[in-house]
Design brief:
This protein has helices spanning 5-30, 37-53, 59-88, 95-114, 141-160, 164-174, 176-181, 186-212, 218-233, 238-258, 264-278, and strands at 131-134, 137-140. By secondary structure, it is mainly alpha-helical.
């Protein structure tokens, strides 16, 4: 096997894991899948690329501005499209329609504002997308940084869930009404989760842009594979999402090299199907109720 497939697969897998983590951050306190998550990723890339190119902001400042803008938009989405649904019924599924509606609105607005042309984004100095040889693999410093950032974010978020506030999120995920009776405010946790999930989505888009360009097609591509990583890893489990992201990224890279680039998506879903047939609740999922 060509060793160059390893950094390519791990880099793609890191992006899928970040999208999956964004899903999980929102899902845990709300039991809602935000189908606009891919569009938030795309919007983060477009806003970040624009403020860096037009306003001339440095990479970190542009990334922070994009994360803030998208986080605020995600908070608005929660107030408009999710909170009213959960208020009527904590177990209702009307959020499928409302979040898809937000997705279409964002996609159309971004298409009208930025148009279809992709925007090239340079990585932050001193990182580069130029490759060098590392143990027989062609890898860039930006790829290594992206993998490291993903690991830090995933384990950082998992560490948060061990804190008092994190356990409150888990309690709401287990039983929203019972958590309310225990003095936990589910609405506040829902708002913060959407805000944080929007920031993670924007950061994912910004990190993806130097490799995949900032374009209106970025969100749908990452959404599908990020959702696959969330399902394969076990819904709500970020460590599972990380492992599943790397499995899907490697399957995609191997499929493109061994078969054809046209079979990448087929390989992803073949791997997803096999794993879910063996582990219906995902690699780290369980049919049993969580203990909080």
């Amino acid at each position: 096997m060509d060793l160059d497939l390893i950094p390519a697969g791990l880099t793609a897998g890191s992006l899928y894991a970040l999208v999956a983590m964004g899903f999980n951050i929102l899902y845990r306190p709300t039991n809602v899948f935000n189908f606009a998550q891919g569009d938030l990723v795309m919007l983060g890339a477009m806003v970040g690329a624009s403020v860096m190119a037009i306003a001339g902001l440095p990479w970190l400042a542009g990334a922070a501005a994009a994360m803030l803008c998208v986080a605020v938009l995600a908070l608005v989405e929660e107030r408009v499209a999710v909170a009213p649904v959960l208020k009527r019924s904590a177990h209702g599924h009307s959020w499928v329609i409302t979040t898809l509606a937000i997705s279409m609105i964002i996609g159309n607005l971004v298409g009208r504002i930025w148009g279809p042309d992709p925007i090239a984004v340079k990585p932050p100095a001193p990182l580069s997308t130029e490759t060098f040889d590392l143990l027989g693999m062609a890898v860039s410093s930006y790829q290594l940084a992206l993998i490291a950032i993903t690991l830090l974010l995933v384990f950082g978020v998992e560490g948060f869930y061990r804190t008092r506030s994190g356990k409150a999120v888990m309690a709401v995920a287990e039983d929203r009404d019972a958590a309310l009776l225990r003095g936990i405010d589910p609405d506040r946790l829902s708002r913060w989760s959407f805000f944080l999930g929007g920031a993670v989505a924007a950061l994912t888009g910004i990190l993806a842009a130097p490799l995949l360009y900032a374009s209106t097609g970025l969100g749908p591509a990452l959404l599908l594979k990020g959702f696959a990583a969330a399902a394969v890893g076990g819904i709500g489990n970020n460590r599972g999402a990380l492992l599943a992201g790397y499995i899907i990224g490697m399957a995609e890279a191997v499929g493109a090299a061994v078969l054809s680039p046209g079979y990448q998506l087929a390989m992803v879903f073949a791997v997803m199907l096999v794993i879910l047939l063996i582990r219906p609740h995902g690699l780290f999922g369980s049919a049993e109720a969580r203990t909080v």
